[in-house]
Backbone:
């Protein structure tokens, strides 16, 4: 990873304020990638072996609903992270994800990050705390969408 990419990585909201040695460990196991629009990053049920920190673009998180096809759960963008299933066993994607537009992202090797977390629990704590915050925000957003959806269906 170049010095410029390392600087950009450290300014990402997800990693901002992370101690320099922690950032260096994570930078060693990631790469900056460009992904064309319409490319599937991962499929529900497959092995969660990577995750992405979005630098530019949009990614739709989706799931397959029997009889209805794919349903977009949320669209995320710059500064967001996708692919959090890498953190917890059985390390399988619980959803799918596809790029909505050309996307630039930092792609992390999940196995290598888990090894770093095992070797340095302080890194693991920092990442777990940050991912917990993301999951809480996404759960709150889902709750609000469901509440809004049911409120509109009652008036129909």
Residues:
């Amino acid at each position: 990873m170049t010095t410029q990419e390392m600087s950009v990585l450290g300014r990402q909201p997800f990693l901002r304020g992370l101690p320099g040695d922690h950032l260096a460990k994570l930078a060693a196991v990631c790469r900056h990638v460009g992904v064309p629009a319409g490319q599937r990053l991962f499929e529900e049920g497959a092995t969660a072996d990577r995750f992405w920190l979005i630098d530019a673009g949009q990614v739709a998180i989706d799931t397959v609903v029997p009889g209805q096809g794919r349903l977009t759960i949320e669209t995320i963008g710059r500064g967001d992270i996708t692919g959090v299933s890498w953190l917890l066993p059985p390390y399988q994607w619980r959803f799918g994800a596809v790029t909505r537009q050309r996307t630039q992202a930092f792609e992390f090797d999940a196995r290598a990050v888990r090894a770093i977390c095992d070797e340095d629990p302080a890194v693991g704590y920092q990442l777990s705390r940050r991912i917990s915050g993301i999951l809480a925000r996404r759960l709150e957003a889902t709750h609000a969408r469901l509440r809004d959806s049911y409120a509109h269906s009652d008036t129909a």
Remarks:
- The chain has one domain: 3-154.
